[in-house]
C-alpha cells in the first residue's frame, strides 16, 4: 500500500506545534508495518535543510491565476527520518525562513497543494491513499475529485486528520481564481458561510476524517469554531485515533538530550540526579518537588491562569514545591509571569521561548506537569511526561481525558474539571501529597512509565482505517 502524507510541518525539519511531532513519526512507524509511506511538505530555509543533502528529483511549473510559478521537488538523500521526505520549493512562495505568519499564507498553501499534485501526476505517481494533515492541505480531497487537471486521482482515497479544529484557513472567495480550474457546480463543497473554508472542504470531500483522540472527535460535534454542524453531519466517516509518541526520540533510557539516562528500574535515582543538575542551573531548591509547564502561552492552553495558580500555591505555606515554566506566546501571560519572578526567587523560574533540548531536560527533572487546557485535541506533553515518570495534572478535556486516569481511580495522574486557578490548585495539592508519599510515588511513576503510548499502536489503527476505506 502506497500512502503519501501532506503537511506543512514535520519535526525536525520545521516545527511550530504538535502537528510536526505527529508527521515526523507516523510515516516511520507505518513503514515498520510494511506501508510505503512518504511525506510531501514545503521547503523552508531551516537548519535541517542546510545541514542535509537533497536530490533534485523533479521540476515543473503551474499557473496560480495568471502568475506562472516554477517549482522544484527535492528529496532528502538518506531518509534520515526513517521515511522519504520530498520538499516543494517555489521561489517567492515556498522558500522562506518561517512556517507561518506571512500575509500571503493562503497563496502559499494553494501553491503547495497544486504543485504537489502536479508533480505526482506529471511523474505518474499514483498512491493508494493521500493523507492530509490540517487545513493547510484541506483542498487536496476536493482537487483530486473535482478538477479536470487532477481527475486521474479520483480513484485515490483521501484521509483528512484534524489536529486542531479551531483553525480553518478561511479565505475570501476572491482567492478562488488561484485554484486549478474546477467544476463550478461543486462550489458549495468549498464554501462555508460565504468563504472558502479549507477545513470544511476537507471534511466534506475526504473519504474519511480522523481526529487525534476519541474525546476530541465528540467535542468537535459541539465546539469546532462554527463547523460543529458539519462534523456532526459527517460523523459516519469520523474516527478518533490517539496520537502516539516517537520512542526513538522520547525515551529516558536512550535520550541523548538528558543526563543521566534512566530506566523504569532506575527512575528514582535518575530523576533525583536530573533535578539536582536542573535546579542548580536555575537557582532552585532540588530537595522540593518540581512542577513544570511546557507549551504556548495561549488561551486554548489555559496558560493565562498560570500566574494565579503560582500565587495561590505560594500563598499557602504548607505547599512545598518549586515551579519552572518553559514557553512563549501571549504577551499578557508572559508579563504576568515575569512580574512574579522577583517575589519567588529560589522557588520559581522561567525560560521564555522555544527550546527542544530544554524541554527534554524538564521532563527528566520534573515530578509534575501542569496542563490546564481549555482545548486539547490530543496533547503530547502528557504522554512525554508519563514516559519520563513525570505525573501529569490535566484539565478534563479532549485527549487529556482519553489518556490520563486520576489516581483516585487507580490511575497515574490528576484531573480537574474547570479552567480556573482554584480547581487547578486543588489538583496540584493532591499531587504534592502523593509526591511526599514516597512508596506511592514510586509505584505511580512505574505505572506511568509502563504505559504504551508509542506510535506502534496508533500507526496500526491508521493502517486498519486505510484498509477499510480501500475495501
From TrEMBL:
<dbReference type="InterPro" id="IPR013534">
    <property type="entry name" value="Starch_synth_cat_dom"/>
</dbReference>
<dbReference type="InterPro" id="IPR001296">
    <property type="entry name" value="Glyco_trans_1"/>
</dbReference>
<dbReference type="GO" id="GO:0009011">
    <property type="term" value="F:alpha-1,4-glucan glucosyltransferase (ADP-glucose donor) activity"/>
</dbReference>
<dbReference type="GO" id="GO:0005978">
    <property type="term" value="P:glycogen biosynthetic process"/>
</dbReference>
<keyword id="KW-0328">Glycosyltransferase</keyword>
<keyword id="KW-0808">Transferase</keyword>
<protein>
    <recommendedName>
        <fullName>Glycogen synthase</fullName>
        <ecNumber>2.4.1.21</ecNumber>
    </recommendedName>
</protein>
<dbReference type="GO" id="GO:0004373">
    <property type="term" value="F:alpha-1,4-glucan glucosyltransferase (UDP-glucose donor) activity"/>
</dbReference>
<feature type="domain" description="Glycosyl transferase family 1">
    <location>
        <begin position="275"/>
        <end position="432"/>
    </location>
</feature>
<comment type="pathway">
    <text>Glycan biosynthesis; glycogen biosynthesis.</text>
</comment>
<comment type="similarity">
    <text>Belongs to the glycosyltransferase 1 family. Bacterial/plant glycogen synthase subfamily.</text>
</comment>
<feature type="binding site">
    <location>
        <position position="15"/>
    </location>
    <ligand>
        <name>ADP-alpha-D-glucose</name>
    </ligand>
</feature>
<dbReference type="InterPro" id="IPR011835">
    <property type="entry name" value="GS/SS"/>
</dbReference>
<dbReference type="Pfam" id="PF08323">
    <property type="entry name" value="Glyco_transf_5"/>
</dbReference>
<feature type="domain" description="Starch synthase catalytic">
    <location>
        <begin position="2"/>
        <end position="230"/>
    </location>
</feature>
<comment type="function">
    <text>Synthesizes alpha-1,4-glucan chains using ADP-glucose.</text>
</comment>
<keyword id="KW-0320">Glycogen biosynthesis</keyword>
<dbReference type="Pfam" id="PF00534">
    <property type="entry name" value="Glycos_transf_1"/>
</dbReference>
